[in-house]
Amino acid sequence: MTLASFSRWPIPRQLGLCFALFFVATATGAERYSATTVEEAGVTLIVLRDEVAGMEAAIAPRQGGELSSLRIHFRGEWLELLYRARDYREATGWRGKAPLLWPAVGRNFSRTQPRDPNAELCSYDFAGRRYDLPIHGFARMQAWQVIGTRANADGAAVEVELTDNAATRRQYPFGFSFRIVYRLAEGRLTLTHRIAAARENDATMFFSIGNHVTFRLPLVPGSAPGETTLQTPSRFELPKDANTLPAGESRPLDLSKPSRLAERSFLPPLGLAGYEGDPWVRLADPTGLAIVVTHQAERLPAGQCILFNLWGSPASGYFSPEPWVGLTDSLNRRAGLIELQPGEQWAWRIDFAVEGR
Questions:
Q1: Percent of the chain beyond pLDDT 70?
Q2: Does some domain include residue 91?
Q3: Which among 65, 150, 197, 299 is placed 20 to 30 Å from 209, CA to CA?
Q4: Upstream peptide bond of 252 is cis (omega within 30 degrees of 0)
Q5: For residue 217, pLDDT beyond 80
Q6: For 169-185, how does the pLDDT look when each residue is reduced to its tens digit (9 = 90+)?
Q7: Is the confidence at residue 22, as pLDDT, over 50?
Q8: How many angstroms separate the CA atoms of 111 and 166, rounded?
Q9: For 219, how many CA atoms within 13 A lie in the half-sphere containing its CB?
């Protein structure tokens, strides 16, 4: 696919040139960084590696375009940080890795759907019609297309894209282009999301978005999972009701100092808001190894929205500090939404950094 084929989307000429230059280089041109394609158990993975920083990320384009693995070199060996990394076998329980949540986060219940806190198929009402939509949306279930890869002295990257198709339009009546650039550089992984509403749309396109990144507990084998600490500078939480829907209130909550995961329950999930700067969460192993997740949106929804959704437990063997921009049931309540007029774009960035090595 060429850049010319994206004339449907409102991408400025300068941005198109940037993308073209960005992906001219190949993996063979760099010694520190590499971007390679591998096949594992029938799954195609794009593996980005930083040899100097000792960091590696694997992206699975056809499995929802998701981050499938995040490894670091720690104490002389490669250590996997994600839960059920690179594992796409049928299994019970949470699938792990880092699925993308779009165009919804959590559950949506239309007026005619009974409330069920365990529902996997949800729904919303729009323009006089009910649309069925899986929990967390459909993006994680779609095969994404690889636009290009590169590796040079500045880093390693892959860009993937999802566009509307017959299946998505049955669930979401909008034309769109959704691109993600995964970039590994200087020991940091950055995910840059850019969503464009098609010019042909005849209504305002709306969505919430999130990433269900899931880390293994303990981060370092042999550590006590409950001694893992959490730190984030939120000022309050946005509680959910028994059906996981917004309760319509906020409560003061200070997590600015590290606290042990064993001291608090995150089942059901804890929705955080009230950040004064870019939202971040720091998850630290007792050994001192820590992962910091930061995100930044081009703009936020009007009104309150959840910016981190915390879920998991030491007993489960995983923890998800999910970066969100939105609310559960946002498509029905028309709250916690990013809105795009036809031809408009929006960008969102997530950064993963490792400390304590």
A1: 92
A2: yes
A3: 150
A4: no
A5: yes
A6: 999 999 999 999 999 99
A7: no
A8: 25
A9: 28
Does 35 fall in a domain?
A: yes
Question: Residue 287 domain-assigned?
Answer: no
Q: Residue 86 sits in a domain of what CATH number?
A: 2.70.98.10
Per the domain annotation, does 261 fall within a domain? no
What was the pLDDT predicted at 30? 55
- pTM metric for this prediction: 0.90
Contact present, 112 and 130 (Cβ < 8 Å): yes
Count of the separate structural domains present in the chain: 1
Q: Are strands 188-197 and 176-185 parallel, antiparallel or unpaired?
A: antiparallel
Q: How far apart are alpha carbons 277 and 211 in whole angstroms?
A: 19
* Sign of the dihedral defined by the CA atoms of residues 262, 265, 267, 269, in that order: negative
- Mean pLDDT, rounded, for 83-107: 96
The pLDDT tens digits for 115-169 are 888 888 999 999 999 999 999 999 999 999 999 999 999 999 999 999 999 999 9
Whether residue 82 contacts residue 98, with contact meaning beta carbons closer than 8 Å, is answered with: yes
Residue-wise pLDDT tens digits, 23-50: 444 434 459 999 999 999 999 999 999 9
Tell me the three-class secondary structure of the chain, residue by residue.
CCHHHHCCCCCCHHHHHHHHHHCCCCHHHCCCEEEEEEEECCEEEEEEEECCCCEEEEEECCCCCEEEEEEEEECCEEEECECCCCCCCCCCCCCCCECEECCCCCCCCCCCCCCCCCCCEEEEEECCEEEEEECCCCHHHCCCEEEEEEEECCEEEEEEEEECCHHHHHHCCCCEEEEEEEEEECCEEEEEEEEEECCCCCCCEEECEEECCCEECCCCCCCCHHHCEEECCCCEECCECCCCCECCCCEECCCCCCEEHHHCCEEEEEEEECCCCCCEEEEECCCCCEEEEEEEECCCCCCCCEEEEEEEECCCCEEEEEEEEECCCHHHHCCCCEEECCCCEEEEEEEEEEECC
- The candidate with the shortest Cα–Cα distance to 220, out of 84, 57, 356, is 356
> Cα–Cα distances in Å, from 145 out to 142, 155, 162?
10, 21, 7
* Dist CA 233 CA 277 (whole Å): 9
